[in-house]
## 1
Amino acid sequence: MTDPRNFYAEVGGAPVFDKLVSRFYEEVARDDVLLPLYPEQDLGPAEVRLRMFLEQYWGGPRTYSDQRGHPRLRMRHHPFKIGPIERDAWLRCMRIAVDEAGFDDAHRDQIWEYMTYAAASMQNSDF
Ligand code: HEM
């Protein structure tokens, strides 16, 4: 398994993360569970934040922390009720994005495993 610090470069860097996150937000924009959670009408800024975070986590530029400080993602998700339905909706959108990003099988499995783990850890409600 790739060290997450090398993943970004190995898969092709910025264009790949761009494609991944923009495809994810295309799905969010038409998801009846997720869309109402977003405080801003314009999903553009949220897309930029998720892209910067994922780039940083996987060994790319550290712009997320430069702009947003420590991620504290559980805390930042606290205002939104995230139960099994929201978690599964998020993973449905992400599955499409991951499948279409053009990863080889090993990198796809690695990032997918992370996404399922991260989505479960963001859950803050049992219903
Ligand atoms: C922000 C929903 C899981 C990363 C947000 C926001 C919402 C949201 C509504 C606010 C949008 C904004 O930035 O203005 C959800 C739901 C999830 C989920 C329903 C279901 C499990 C995740 C996961 C990750 C993640 C698994 C990381 C792998 C982020 C990041 C931000 C964010 C980086 C921006 C934080 C900031 O700097 O303010 N999410 N999220 N989210 N989410 Fe999630």
Note: Residues 34, 37-40, 46, 49-50, 53, 68, 73, 76-77, 80, 82, 86-87, 90, 118-119, 122 surround protoporphyrin IX containing FE (CB under 6 Å).
## 2
Amino acid sequence: MEKAQLVFVPWPGMGHLVSAVELAKHLLTRDQRLSVTILILQLSFINSKQVHNYIESLQASSSTISNSLRFIILPKDEPELFNFTSFIERQKPHVKEAVLKIIQSESTSDSPAPRLGGFVLDLFCAPMIDVANDFDVPSYIYFTSSAAFLGLMLYLQKIHDEEKFDPIEFKNSDAELPVPSLVNPFPARVMPCAMLRREWLSPTLENARRYREVKGIIVNTFLEFESYAIQSLKMPPVYPVGPILDIGSVGSNAPQEIMQWLDNQPLSSVVFLCFGSMGSFSEDQVKEIACALEHSGYRFLWALRRPPPPGKLASPSDYEDPQEVLPEGFLDRTAGIGKVIGWAPQVAILAHQAVGGFVSHCGWNSVLESIWFGVPIAAWPIYSEQQLNAFEMVFELGLAVEIKIDYSKDSEIIVKCDEIERGIRCLMEHDTEKRKKVKEMSEKSRKALMEGGSSYFWLGHFIRNVMAIK
Ligand code: UPG
């Protein structure tokens, strides 16, 4: 039996890494001829303890696929001042050396060595194609965000390179753009804030340029969900294999205190607020959210996190005592209806029947998790490409309500209490058309992964492609 090995290079942020690991698990469960090595880049502004604990827990688990999945942590080598391009450049020799070692160690083992089948690179790591080329094997991208965003990246790169238009000029613009992956004209005011900052725009355009060289782009989405966007992407081949989610151990590690609190709440009564692995707000903004929750009177579960110090790139942390940022007496007055927590067991919470709505930053994993569990979203994007995800969910797909889709952490505006309250009320209304649509999409997401489903088909197609290349 011919075997093939894939080398994954994920971005080390949890939103990317966990998704890549889950993709690897899907591949390994589906085809025993495959094995996967995941190379872990180290980056100081990402919570490395969380990353290491996560990998250790995977290594300790004795699943049937653990023999075919391994991790190699690459040496820490980061430029003094973080710069995306030079960070990736410095990682290339480490990636090359790790892969050479794998090949050498396998050539000395007794059993026949698996063929190096290719590299699966994170959406931020496309320049690693150079390393794959050195080994003369194909590269694929694993795109952990939406097909719509992939379309926007390719569109911006095209107008930049062919029409010599600088996308930074979309800042404060009223233009509406004909982005091929969107049905509606795309208002520049909701341009993802990452595209409006030179330090992120340049590497994003460079990544998009390199996408055109790869053998295929695996996207964490599914045909029934983003059909228009997926069909708009002509080249290179796109494999919509999602939703790829970490829901295997729903609830098993969730703190009992939170789950018991949810157990005591009525069906679909709780609004859950959570803003991803890097999302947090200023103290003034926190007070407006608290005011909105109190006024709305809805039950709530709020993952409240402390932002990193000003000017520092770092993951948010938990407050020792959230009272220090909340309005005076807030916790006492809402003790009967609400709970403030730090890091949330998000999947277990969304799976709980007491949860009726999700105020989210629209990180793509959160969007997919909300769809999977049929919980509607009120969109409040903060950074990265989240503004586009929010636009897609609210206006393209009609699956979410808006809190403020043109918010960004760079905009320095404060969303006021009444605006947030209006969004929460709209979200928590029952029996709305949106709620019904979300439930229907939830069923479709589950069917897509089953044998005979669209994502099942595309994953098989990807594997056939990998195995066919010699
Ligand atoms: N999560 C928790 N508890 C928390 C916060 C997050 O379990 O308190 C989980 C959540 O369930 C999800 C993941 O962490 O699985 C967060 O992923 P996501 O919702 O995608 O947000 P980010 O961590 O912000 O993800 C980054 C980018 C985002 C992008 C995504 C995928 O910020 O914009 O869509 O990566 O590329």
Note: The chain has two domains: 4-168+173-246+448-468, 256-445.
